[in-house]
């Protein structure tokens, strides 16, 4: 009988130890879940592009007919990283014949407010760069105080890199002569290095698209940076579901003013 009682006592101790270990394991698992959810885990500590954009004080957006009819009063009251929206680029034209149906309205509304206005042309490879330049010049209606014009190049089509560079330069030079300025080039980070890697291109201010899922905002080669296509701004759609491109400017307010047309 004494032997039996001692054996039962040992079993009871083992049960208590098992319960303690199970409790510790559960507590540890809960802690991991909480840390992960709150962004404290090691995996979640990597900086997000939107957080890095907060380091810049001059923010802006770019729009086209895809954003529909915009409530510009609400846009002017909106903020990005606690900063007001300072500049807006609007799509004017595409290829040799297409005009953005919201351009004239966007231009008029933006100019009535304390925002820098800029216009861009979407380049279509394989179409005459001279005709594309003429379409933009005929419809952009840029004036003193507007930001320098921009050429948006995202596709190479069937062109060789050499021909693409020559066509892009033709557009930039033609538009630059007309407005007596140095236009800007918009393109993607990877596209630039793959298709437009020419030192003649580097003399033009770069508006670089470099999104969160492809690394952080790095380098000193850009003037403007489009850091996300999935921004939300009050006045555009419902401000929650409808996307708009968000951008930062690398420079001071005086630097931004220097990129406006003089006459």
By DSSP (H or I, 4+ residues per run), the number of helices equals: 8
Determine the fraction of residues in helical runs and give it as a percent range: 25-40%
Biggest sheet: strand arrangement: 1-3-5-6-7-8-9-10
Beta-strand share of residues? 15-25%
- Give the C-level CATH assignment of the largest domain: Alpha Beta
CATH H level of the largest domain: which superfamily? Glycosidases
Mean pLDDT: 84
* CATH T-level fold name of the largest domain: TIM Barrel
Main pleated sheet: 8 strands, mixed, barrel
Question: Judging from the principal axes of the Cα atoms, what is the shape?
Answer: globular
> What's the count of strands?
10
Q: Helix- and strand-based class?
A: alpha/beta
Q: What is the string of SSEs from the N terminus onward?
A: HHEHEEEHEHEHEHEEEH
Unreliable segments of 5+ consecutive residues: 1-9, 28-47
Rounded Rg: 27 Å
Number of discrete domains: 2
| Terminal-residue CA separation | 109 Å
CATH architecture label of the largest domain = Alpha-Beta Barrel
Short key terms for the protein model shown above:
alpha/beta, eight-stranded mixed beta barrel, TIM Barrel
């Amino acid at each position: 009988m004494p032997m039996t009682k001692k054996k039962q006592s040992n079993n009871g101790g083992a049960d208590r130890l098992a319960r303690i270990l199970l409790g510790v394991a559960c507590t540890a698992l809960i802690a991991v879940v909480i840390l992960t959810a709150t962004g404290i885990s090691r995996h979640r500590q990597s900086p997000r592009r939107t957080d890095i954009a907060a380091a810049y004080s001059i923010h802006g957006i770019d729009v086209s007919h895809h954003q529909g009819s915009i409530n510009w009063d609400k846009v002017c009251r909106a903020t990005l990283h606690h900063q007001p929206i300072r500049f807006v680029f609007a799509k004017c034209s595409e290829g040799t014949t297409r005009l953005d149906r919201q351009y004239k309205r966007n231009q008029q509304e933006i100019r009535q407010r304390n925002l820098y206005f800029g216009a861009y042309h979407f380049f279509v490879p394989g179409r005459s760069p001279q005709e594309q330049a003429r379409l933009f010049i005929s419809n952009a209606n840029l004036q003193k105080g507007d930001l320098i014009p921009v050429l948006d190049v995202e596709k190479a089509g069937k062109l060789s890199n050499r021909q693409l560079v020559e066509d892009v330069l033709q557009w930039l030079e033609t538009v630059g002569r007309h407005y007596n300025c140095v236009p800007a080039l918009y393109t993607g980070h990877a596209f630039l290095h793959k298709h437009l890697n020419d030192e003649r291109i580097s003399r033009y201010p770069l508006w670089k698209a470099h999104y969160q899922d492809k690394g952080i905002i790095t380098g000193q080669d850009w003037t403007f940076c489009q850091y996300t296509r999935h921004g939300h701004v009050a006045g555009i759609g419902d401000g929650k579901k409808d996307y708009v491109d968000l951008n930062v400017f690398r420079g001071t307010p005086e630097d931004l003013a220097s990129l406006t047309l003089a006459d």
